[in-house]
């Protein structure tokens, strides 16, 4: 407790320091949409909540027992007028909000590619999307850029004003892929591929997190999202290929090396597991993401995947071009 | 708490028992609704996992419809025999109740035996509940029904001896027999769903 | 012999747990010693532990619920202090292994063993009295329900000292709760304590639905039922329709963990999405199960303390029905972020928003109940004003989260945590506390000191805002729930404020404890002005329970009341009570029974043995339960008659007290 009190003198200063309220200061059209919906609903609901609170306080004060002057209707318990009002007003408000609900759920659907309209708004009407494959691991994030042949761990570098086309899966437990300032989050689940479309409209260094509990390393399962102008991004891609860059791994990410990076850190009861350091891969085997999805997908015959699921075949003997990620699942 | 029933008039007692019987049977219906939802949920689970074979065998490869048809016939027949037990219970015909109960019991035991045999064969062929999500949901759904039938049989066994004993066909015993009858017919209905959705659905 | 259980399962290297254990052991030994010293074991067994009397069961439920409140609250204090400290490299004092168990236990205990328990206490005490019944439909099953709840609470607390508790949150989402990622016994403790308490809750629902349908007093039509009974009825219907789903989800998770099935595993074709759907199709209705009775309590209190009938009784009942229906079809709003299609998300979003309509109507109804009334701000009434303000805000944030486009960013954040504490504390908890203080004099026949209740309310009201408003803010700053440490400087000041808030709440809890202790003190000393002589302690009771003496005799009603309308007791006070038509008759009552405690003990053994894979003990527990049930089934000596002389003596004593009370005025 002593430690706690030490912080108190600093409290006002901390509150005044330039805070970022991520969800209210978004850095992209999706985040702006999320915010607008939140603020809109808040504003509409305040139209009811504020009067209700005021009425509660006024009625409680005015009709207090000691106020003998107030009118007292000891048997009054029904009024059609009031009934119409108390049902009608909430229904009207909810109908209005439902309209917004329908529109925004469709307009900002995470599965829908960034619309032309949004692109035009940020001044990049013809921007081509950048594909990023996201894999949640224990307790880190792997980002694969299939078109660039590179990958990163715990850092997501993206160009601004470019639609980001995320394919998300998990090679461990379920969690949620979330960059608050860019907007919507989507679950990552093993054996399944979920999608998310975001866009960063201005450069910045944004926090990214796992928004669903994943185990002892959960709190450090975070990454920085660095959004930069296109030229800078291209320079960054070049730097990933630079072997002198200390962040770059000395080996390619492929079927043989993947298990090493996928493996969870040591876990103890006394301390939190070590967070994974940022790491770049200048070379990634193509099809890695698909094989991570496929290795759990053996059960879902109904989904009719083209590639025959790996089924009962021992996975580590699988060495043809369609590489197989080793299984840690003990099937 | 040291008073006993001698204070009460007999008429009062009977009226009370009648009311209690009505309440108990209503309560048992309410309980059956919870069981109904348990089975409903298990059916939903089966429906969502019934194609998740995980490289394991499918229902078409596994199920022996003939055996299941025999099981179905046995269970339906046991509902009829229990029906006769109920009719005789109302007529206060103790001997007949016992005979019909015994018959129902034998049919029930045969049903459970056939089911255990089926499960045993599946496991022996490497198609156990840990093989795939499909088999997990199959064993759980059908096994839960089988467990209910087994509990029903144990209940029937106890009631059999209670009817034989000093309680005879008292109002309280009749209430119990009625509750068991609801339970037994309910399991029959569930089985018909199992037969159509699980077995026929997988084979067709 | 002992399955997985070895000495190493005892966490003697964790000082917090050892300290807690010593504390619990000292209190436990003191209580046992006191009972032995005062030679009260026989009394305790005969009059309480074997009771089937719904009023005594209610008292035991309340005690259990309050003890669990303190336990769950201690968890909350630990979480808030951890988050106040664990900033910028400081790991705090709770490593993830411990912290994760704390938040899981907090959620599980507060929902299953605090809220559900106090809710069942209120059902037990109030419903039979309000409908003019002498007991519930199945008194013995009622006792079994209580013991299932009790032993599951004991089981969850054993996990503190033997092994560990679940670390995956109060809903145990797979696959992180599967054996592959969670080989310890924590999740098993969670599964079996939830499973056992679920049996108890289901039996309670069956019991009270039957009671309300079949045992209403002569003349009590459906639309004569007090609102609390209505809400209890709807709540029980929701338990009936959704708790079996919980039972199934827990059973399937157990099958995955115990026999290697593949319902929710990553491999073998399991589906985590299936679990989410199952658990939330119970989990969402669960919050309505909790809140509806609280609405019922507020309805009773608002009418009593405003000196007016409840405004819009029929509307209230209809709104409760609509909430019951809508509450059951909105569960998908807990995972808008799972990647479902826009149409699905829209449907569930809009349905969720529409729940705001009947809920809003209820708020207006309470508002217009106060309108042109004579509102007396005694203890229970404070909570309702606090509730209306707080719950409105919670409802607002709830509607915000119902819009998928907004939920995609506040899902799983501390905004969400703030929202549900806003409705659960501001709605459920305020309601239950108000209910406890409202019916307390009826239960025990003496009053609590109002001033401590008022202070408890003030601390809770202020403490709530100080604790949870900051969480809304950090939620908007992108902080997700269940974090153990962080380094975002924006979050830190707010989490410090929240930590202060939890200590204000602690002051509120302390006031409540003091209030109960002082009430017990007054009762022991027979403080004259603490006695409730008339049975109508608040002077303006409207429903049947206030027509009875306090405490209520064990048979409840000497004569079954004849109901002539809504608010029967109020009508009787206005028009005079009808002269008794018939002579007193002996009353048929169930005998007390040891079946409840025996089955409870068996369930505890079975639960513990299942956690540790001690199979012989599981079988032994099942065998003993079986023979207990068979023995009971063959037992014909299960009831007795209360003689007329006893009833007459009670009646005369009550008449004397009423006369004394009138003379005093």
Write the layout of secondary structure elements.
The complex is a heterotrimer of chains A (331), B (204) and C (665).
Chain A: H1 2-6, H2 11-16, H3 29-62, H4 80-107, H5 116-121, E1 130-137, E2 140-145, E3 150-153, E4 155-159, E5 163-170, E6 175-179, E7 183-188, E8 194-199, E9 204-210, E10 222-228, H6 230-241, H7 258-262, E11 279-281, H8 288-296
Parallel strand pairs in A: 1-5, 4-10
Antiparallel strand pairs in A: 1-2, 2-3, 3-11, 5-8, 6-7, 6-9, 9-10
Helix pairs in contact in A: 3-4
Chain B: H1 10-49, H2 59-62, H3 65-90, H4 94-124, H5 133-164, H6 171-203
Helix pairs in contact in B: 1-5, 1-6, 3-4, 3-6, 4-5, 5-6
Chain C: H1 15-37, H2 41-49, H3 54-85, H4 96-130, H5 139-161, H6 186-214, H7 227-259, H8 272-306, H9 313-327, H10 342-370, H11 379-402, H12 404-410, H13 414-444, H14 450-476, H15 491-524, H16 568-575, E1 587-590, H17 595-612, H18 615-634, E2 639-642, H19 644-664
Antiparallel strand pairs in C: 1-2
Helix pairs in contact in C: 3-4, 3-5, 3-15, 4-5, 4-6, 4-13, 5-6, 5-17, 6-7, 6-17, 7-8, 7-9, 8-9, 8-10, 8-13, 9-10, 10-11, 11-13, 11-14, 13-14, 14-15, 17-18
Describe the protein in words.
The complex is a heterotrimer of chains A (331), B (204) and C (665). Chain A has 331 residues and is of the alpha+beta class. Helices cover 32% and strands 20% of the residues of chain A. The radius of gyration of chain A is 26 Å and the shape is elongated. In chain B, α1 (10-49) packs parallel to α6 (171-203) and α4 (94-124) runs antiparallel to α5. With 665 residues, chain C is mainly α. Helix content of chain C is 68%, strand content 1%. Chain C has 19 helices and 2 strands. Chain C has helices at residues 15-37, 41-49, 54-85, 96-130, 139-161, 186-214, 227-259, 272-306, 313-327, 342-370, 379-402, 404-410, 414-444, 450-476, 491-524, 568-575, 595-612, 615-634, 644-664; strands at 587-590, 639-642. Chain C is globular and about 75 Å long. Chain B: It is a multi-pass membrane protein. Chain B: Keywords: Cell membrane, Electron transport, Membrane, Oxidoreductase, Transmembrane, Transmembrane helix, Transport. Chain B: This is Cytochrome bo(3) ubiquinol oxidase subunit 3. Chain B: Residues 1-203 form the Heme-copper oxidase subunit III family profile domain.
